Amino acid sequence: MKNQLSVGVVGCGYWGPNLVRNFRSLPDCRLRMMCDLSVDRLGHLRSLYPEVEGETNYDHMLNGANLDAIVVATATRLHFPMAKASLLAGKHTLVEKPLAWSSAECEELIAIARKQGVVLMVGHTFLYSAPVRKIKEIVDRREIGDIRYISARRLNLGLFQKDINVTWDLAPHDISIILYVMQERPQSINCRGTAHVTPGIEDVTSMTLHFANQRSAIIHSSWLDPRKVRDMTIVGSKRMIVYDDVALQEKIKIYDVRVERPPHYDTFAEFHYAYHYGDTYCPYIKQDEPLKTECQHFLDCIRQGAAPLTGGESGLEVVQILEASSESLKRSGAPIDILPRSGAASSKTGNAAAGPAAAPVESGARDAASRVAGILH
Ligand SMILES: NC(=O)c1ccc[n+]([C@@H]2O[C@H](COP(=O)([O-])OP(=O)(O)OC[C@H]3O[C@@H](n4cnc5c(N)ncnc54)[C@H](O)[C@@H]3O)[C@@H](O)[C@H]2O)c1
What does the longest C-alpha to C-alpha distance in the chain come to? Predict the structure, then answer.
């Protein structure tokens, strides 16, 4: 493997420049090319990074530049055709979230990546963030007991999208975090929402994921809210975690509170709920840019031929839930079953490899997690 992998980023609108900046900052890669249809966007980025070539033709980028890896940061509808072309050209491919517009498209991308022996990874950025990784550690150590429910809010006066509703835009972040923390797929979901501004494109939605044993997760997504809110509450049987991603410090607070129902009582007068109020504490979290960790992880997976923490299977699981949310919205919030996938690499949250050196899912996911932890520490 070369000392430096050569990388190109396609899509230099709002988000792409963050990928450009991060890949450019990593020593074991050379950001060789930025591609966008807009000559103005390219001109602006080239004024910042004059040593990186600009290109308006994606085919030229794929076939003429001898790149090792492609990063796709265009609108959702373009993810599938662009990622497919990249994989077929033999390039390791990182695709922004959501991986594609349908689970059939995700499955096709996963199959092509396997056949070509290249890494397919999806930009579920929050799984590379230190607060989410800390939450996962706390949950895995069973410090909060059994998860009872999770509630997530991602609201602001948002960047309205033309091709996807607010669930497809914002909820992939929450869904990916919830699947990662729960390590389990929901059995069914339902979603309700309203299109206030653009007919047919919901700008406010509320989705519930129903898991086994009466556990649930509620996700409220909105482009129509005066405040920027990105928070998540994880209610456990012993303790509760509140994660506020907008807070500058103390993003995670752990509340040692719970309520229990006494198992036996003889008369109604004897019946009392047992409330426990203990300390609230904030674990130390080292602040790193999650996107930088994600970009480094992509390069590490290419070098090691290893399964990414957020491989094609993770992208597929999130898209399956998004698809079900669209179906539920059409049916006024009716519950939609999330069927177990036949032939899926895992019944748990999949982080199956897209690359050739795929380890079994459980150990593959663990290895990927420890490789990400290695970047963070
Ligand atoms: N991970 C995150 O936290 C995060 C945050 C924001 C956006 N995103 C994702 O990033 C992606 C891009 O979102 P955005 O808001 O930057 O969109 P955007 O519309 O601002 O940018 C897309 C860019 O793609 C370019 N483009 C379109 N067709 C092209 C083609 N054929 N060839 C080359 N360039 C082409 C456009 O000119 C535009 O500059 C989306 O998938 C979005 O979900 C991820």
Answer: 81
pLDDT tens-digit readout, 141-174? 999 999 999 999 999 998 888 889 999 999 999 9
In the numeric block, the tokens 């199956």 are attached to: 352
pLDDT tens figures, 324-342: 999 999 999 999 999 876 6
pLDDT-based confidence at 270, cuts 50/70/90?
low
**DSSP secondary structure of 13-64:** SSSHHHHHHHHHH-TTEEEEEEE-S-HHHHHHHHHH-TTSEEES-HHHHHHH
In this structure, what DSSP letter does residue 155 have? E
Centroid of ligand 1 to alpha carbon of 14 (angstroms): 6
Ligand 1 atom 30 nearest Cα? 37
**Ligand 1 atom showing the smallest separation from residue 12 Cα:** 39
Per the listing, tokens 């050379």 go with 30
Which residues, judged by CB distance below 6 Å to any ligand atom, belong to the binding site of ligand 1?
Answer: 10-16, 35-38, 41, 58, 73-76, 78, 96-97, 123, 125
Atom of ligand 1 nearest to the CA of 79: 41
What contacts 56, CB < 8 A, 6 or more positions away? 35, 36, 37, 39, 42
Look at ligand 1, atom 34, and give the residue with the nearest C-alpha: 36
Q: How many CB atoms lie within 10 A of CB 233?
A: 17
Q: Which domains does the chain have, with CATH numbers?
A: 127-281 (3.30.360.10)
* Closest atom, ligand 1, to C-alpha of 124: 1
142 Ramachandran zone, left/alpha/beta (phi>0; psi -120 to 50): left
For 373, the enclosing helix (H) or strand (E) is helix 361-376
